[in-house]
Amino acid sequence: MASATPLLKDELDIVIPTIRNLDFLEMWRPFFEPYHLIIVQDGDPSKTIKVPEGFDYELYNRNDINRILGPKANCISFKDSACRCFGYMVSKKKYIYTIDDDCFVATDPSGHKINALKQHIENLLCPSTPFFFNTLYEPFREGADFVRGYPFSLREGVPTAVSHGLWLNIPDYDAPTQLVKPLERNTRYVDAVLTIPKGTLFPMCGMNLAFDRDLIGAAMYFGLMGDGQPIGRYDDMWAGWCCKVICDHLGLGIKTGLPYIYHSKASNPFVNLRKEYKGIFWQEDIIPFFQSVVLPKEATTVQKCYIELAKQVKEKLTKVDPYFDKLADAMVTWIEAWDELNPAGASVANGKA
Amino acid sequence: MASATPLLKDELDIVIPTIRNLDFLEMWRPFFEPYHLIIVQDGDPSKTIKVPEGFDYELYNRNDINRILGPKANCISFKDSACRCFGYMVSKKKYIYTIDDDCFVATDPSGHKINALKQHIENLLCPSTPFFFNTLYEPFREGADFVRGYPFSLREGVPTAVSHGLWLNIPDYDAPTQLVKPLERNTRYVDAVLTIPKGTLFPMCGMNLAFDRDLIGAAMYFGLMGDGQPIGRYDDMWAGWCCKVICDHLGLGIKTGLPYIYHSKASNPFVNLRKEYKGIFWQEDIIPFFQSVVLPKEATTVQKCYIELAKQVKEKLTKVDPYFDKLADAMVTWIEAWDELNPAGASVANGKA
Fold first, then answer.
1. Distance, in angstroms, between A208 CA and closest chain B CA?
2. What CATH fold (topology level) applies to the domain A12-341?
């Protein structure tokens, strides 16, 4: 591929939950300008988001979401960046990159600006190896390979569905950790990409995340957060846990590590604590639930897996809090809306997963 | 701890399978001299290994092994570096560091010599987190922590039994990969330590390895390799798979990543191919075996786990090759010899694991 043609130019959308910061797009211009942007405004629809000249974009506010989804719009969060998943649904591209507006271009240890999108694409285009751990990390990287003792039959790998990037400067801590370590900054650049092993859950952060929409998009639902909901800041976590058990079931991979972005601003820990505190309790039941989920053999598509997961959430987590009953219903609504906007032809790839 | 007093000076032995290279100990002198060395000579007992002045060491050759273990000496490999595990057995210390004589001191990206032993001790002394993946890697390192979404109940972690270090320069490749990529060198310094998740197997390399003898020593058996055996170069792999399933069962952790050593010399790929080729086939049955091993609740000590594992190896792998029948017997002999040399008092810690 010639470097003049950006990778996957016509196959990738960049989804941004909202843009409060005018510098954000200017900083990313060299890397983002060739791609199409989908901006999902998370608050008051009467406010205007200014997008600088030269960007190709579409913008959705709450009125648009209500108009497009009708009564099904109730599965999309309001006044919370979780609304970004509406962008995943309306995209018609194979790949999605999503990033927060307080994430800037990071530099690597040799001082070069990191093209995060390029690294995500590389991660997504090469296989994952979830069945056995490679001690030299990503075996497909230049200068690396599978080490002695790695079974040859497992070296082909499986398709990569998700690429989870990391953050320099402000780490993605929960409110209690933010309160205890207000000055901690992440300065360690770990030059690694690795597959999260099968059967292992991880905290998926939505700040700097790419995925293959055909392979896993229908499970990338960011739940019910924000306005009228009892929790926040678990949108990406919820999506991550759902995606991980579905990827494990369907034989797909999730990578984490490079690329880094520069996370510029810590969110307010007091506000975060209010949003998170129920999640901190509930999580203690949610994790064992996801660790023990078994999806039936008949669940051969992401949609079927997700509907089954919604059923199990309703059965097993509603006793933790009535919120999960509502969430399970919203999960079903999400799939209905997804299928409506992505009719058979468009989502055929899911059936092949 | 004052830097003048080396960490764990009286609690750690360094086990070296043989020393063919006079520079080896000189290079490591600043780091190793304060510790006791156990050298296990892997070949002709009539040859003499010269140990430079100033090192505190004991040396065992085949005659010593035969004298000390009597008929049980048949569980210790001959003419193969797998014999090093005899050193684990005769040690009376809580921690072991083992290193090959072609591994030199590496430098980190800022040009500092890496004290590998110090990093291993740090790895062993801080808990592991095998139940959930932390995307910022080792949460207990300076400047890092658990990220948002990591369940609080899992943050205490479990005791760390094994610290697996890596190699710059010559990577630990199998013979086929060596043949295909003779010039590949590992130049990527990945500044990370991480816990291998529960349920995930990995290829444990014995080149640069430390462990807690009380917690896992009795499972650190390097099998039957070398003289009179059909395979080689699977000694450390075998130990790694056994240790991993036992650690998972007993709630212990295994870390991999830092520290790096500089691996100076590629072994001969043609010789390696001869040693490895049966292992390359057998591995395809061995890995599914270890992935599905279930140890009974009553197996509450490393020894009990290991005896149970030997039983299952005999039952399930002997059909792959009669070698495994012999290996299973040797595993039992190993435990008998271990218990003889490490009577109740000394190995009480195993019972507490």
1. 13
2. Spore Coat Polysaccharide Biosynthesis Protein SpsA; Chain A (3.90.550)
